[in-house]
Write a structure and sequence with these properties.
- The chain has about 375 residues and is an alpha+beta fold.
- It folds into 2 domains: about 20-135, Creatine Amidinohydrolase, Chain A, domain 1, CATH 3.40.350; about 145-365, Creatine Amidinohydrolase.
- It has helices at about 20-40, 50-55, 90-95, 110-115, 130-135, 145-165, 175-185, 245-265, 270-285, and strands at about 40-45, 70-75, 80-85, 100-105, 125, 190-195, 215-225, 230-240, 295-300, 320-325, 330, 330-335, 340, 345, 355-360, 360-365.
- The strands form 5 sheets. A 5-stranded mixed beta sheet has the order 4-3-2-1-5. A 4-stranded antiparallel beta sheet has the order 9-10-13-14, covered by helices on one side.
- β2 (about 70-75) and β3 form a beta hairpin.
- The N and C termini lie far apart (about 60 Å).
Length: about 375
């Protein structure tokens, strides 16, 4: 099936595509470099991560749990976005960069096959064939998207301060995450992950909320997406002074994080950082197996983790690359979204109202005690 005639933009939009023309030109050059290296003339992008990165923040989803409602063919003549006919009006009015052509298929039509059919030979390079190359292309944030990321991260941190600052021991986990969801959505973002564990569930490191009151202490986690970028943050709230064991564990997990931050420098491979993570847990009294009990985070940006770091991930760290590391132990976890700049790691998920302590020269979050 061939694509239908290019859609004309006739709708007055209350939102305009967030993309920056200068940043988009650089991204297109990076994709053309991938085509050059592979000896091909077209690449089909189909994942939310790749599409939102390449379109520089356009929203190409309806259901947060569903597949994108668009596919994009990049070839040497230009960029060609294919979407369903019932989505084309919004896409054209609010999400489409000026230099991207828009084509439609029926809402029940073959989206990917139609986009692939736009390739000169009908057989484009597939996204899955160049996963590592595309990941490398989006490692380094460009100026406009770095600014958008910093603004989103600040909004996510502020939501945590506002909501946890108003919590009480009787607040239920569902009440807490629903308030966080409201704040995230009000900021124009999408809550991709909302977690909470009260005092009775602190052993769970991915705690989906329940109707239980949070009790004397609780952890909350937010992963919020806006303009394609995902900010990740964890915070703790407590209604007592904390036990000596809890305070000691909080200090030690912050020390683990500090070791990870010191290892996050340009030119280092991610598997080398992973080795440092494993050693840091043992160095700070959590034992040699602690890293096996939860993922440790990794590069961030247009995916929650891009990718999660393991011993098999050999990507090389670059300047202006975002990260979210999340070391954790029994009853403790620390997590912020950061950007590696030429002056070192910059913490993005910051709200100056949140209490901090200095760890290795950086302000790191303490447990909030309202």
């Amino acid at each position: 099936m061939t694509a239908q005639t290019q859609t004309t933009r006739t709708i007055t939009a209350s939102r305009t595509a967030p993309g920056n023309a200068a940043d988009r030109a650089i991204k297109r050059r990076r994709v053309l470099d991938i085509l050059d290296a592979s000896g091909r003339d077209a690449l089909l992008l189909t994942s939310n991560t790749a599409l939102t990165w390449y379109l520089d923040g356009s929203r190409v989803h309806i259901s947060l749990a569903g597949d994108p409602i668009a596919a994009l063919l990049v070839d040497r003549t230009g960029d060609h976005l294919v979407t369903f006919n019932n989505e084309a009006g919004r896409i054209a009015a609010e999400e489409l960069p000026a230099d991207v052509s828009l084509h439609t298929v029926p809402w029940h039509g073959p989206l990917h096959a139609t986009a692939a059919g736009l390739a000169p030979d009908g057989n484009p390079l597939l996204e899955g064939d160049v996963t590592a190359e595309l990941r490398a292309a989006r490692q380094q944030l460009l100026p406009a998207e770095a600014a958008r990321y910093a603004a989103l991260s600040a909004d996510a941190a502020a939501a945590m301060t506002d909501v946890l600052g108003e919590a009480t021991p009787d607040t239920t986990e569902f009440e807490l995450v629903s308030r966080l969801a409201a704040r995230v959505v009000a900021a124009g973002a999408e809550p991709l992950v909302l977690l909470c564990n009260g005092a009775g569930r602190s052993d769970f490191r991915h705690p989906l909320a329940t109707h239980s009151p949070i009790g004397r202490r609780a952890m909350a986690v937010v992963c919020a997406r806006r303009d394609g970028l995902v900010a990740n943050v964890t915070r703790w709230v407590a209604f007592d002074a904390g036990s000596p064991a809890e305070l000691d564990a909080e200090a030690r997990i912050a020390a683990v994080e500090a070791d990870i931050f010191r290892a996050t420098v340009p030119g280092v491979r991610l598997n080398e950082v992973f080795t440092e993570i494993q050693q840091a847990y043992e160095r700070h009294g959590f034992g040699p197996e602690q890293w096996t009990l939860h993922h440790q985070g990794g590069p961030a940006g247009y995916a929650g983790r891009d990718p999660r770091v393991t011993s098999a991930v050999t990507d090389t760290i670059v300047l202006n690359q975002p990260f979210t590391w999340n070391p954790s132990g029994p009853g403790v976890k620390i997590e912020d979204t950061v950007l590696l700049t030429d002056s070192g790691l910059q913490i993005l998920t910051v709200d100056e109202r949140w209490p901090t302590t200095e760890v290795d020269g950086r302000g790191r979050p303490l447990t909030l005690r309202p």
